[in-house]
Amino acid sequence: xxxxxxxxxxxxxxxxxxxxxxxxxxxxxxxxxxxxxxxxxxxxxxxxxxxxxxxxxxxxxxxxxxxxxxxxxxxxxxxxxxxxxxxxxxxxxxxxxxxxxxxxxxxxxxxxxxxxxxxxxxxxxxxxxxxxxxxxxxxxxxxxxxxxxxxxxxxxxxxxxxxxxxxxxxxxxxxxxxxxxxxxxxxxxxxxxxxxxxxxxxxxxxxxxxxxxxxxxxxxxxxxxxxxxxxxxxxxxxxxxxxxxxxxxxxxxxxxxxxxxxxxxxx
Length: 267
What we know:
By secondary structure, the protein is α/β, with parallel strands linked by helices. It is built from 8 helices and 7 strands. Strand 1 (10-14), helix 1 (19-30) and strand 2 form a beta-alpha-beta unit. Helix 1 packs across helix 8, helix 3 (66-80) packs parallel to helix 5 (113-141) and helix 5 (113-141) runs parallel beside helix 6 (177-196). InterPro entries: NAD(P)-bd_dom_sf, Sc_DH/Rdtase_CS, SDR_fam.
């Protein structure tokens, strides 16, 4: 089990205050890492870091701003001296405030350009900048593990039928931004793995499936029916995979996409 130990390692998780982000932090902390909780709200990040226990810290960062990342990195390196694990988890997924307009706004024919650009900025450019800031230091120290969080929708196209309610009405469409950006993340992983492999930096993707989180019952049922395990994921279902990719247990693994989706993409 020592292969899975992260004792003495420092890990930074972006988008750390989200549903899965918090579970990522908890898993890394349990495995022994010093965890940097990184999110837009610095005070909330600090509060959550305190909940994790001693040895952790919270910082406020904007992943789309290199200046913000450099400022955050300075604080991290001042305290810990190095970063060994980077989890590029920060991302946005379309939310439509007015349900009555969700169907029309999410349809590809009407999808707003500014919404598409915002997703590119956070989901792709954010991964690029975080990797540049923290990964460069890893390459200089000759070791590190970068884990990019993608999605099953980076591997397969969205099944729009699961967003139809019990009456067969399309409530909204899975918009193009999320699949496009998550597909980009998967190939960016391959680029970095090839670029920094000789420097001892491993780069892998973790592609999770959908997490049950108070969605409409029709959606939960439709989604679950497409998985081989017959259910949506729990927020904790990705913790083992994350620790595996962060630790020496995956020492000979780089450039890979680890899909954990209950069998969604298997058939």
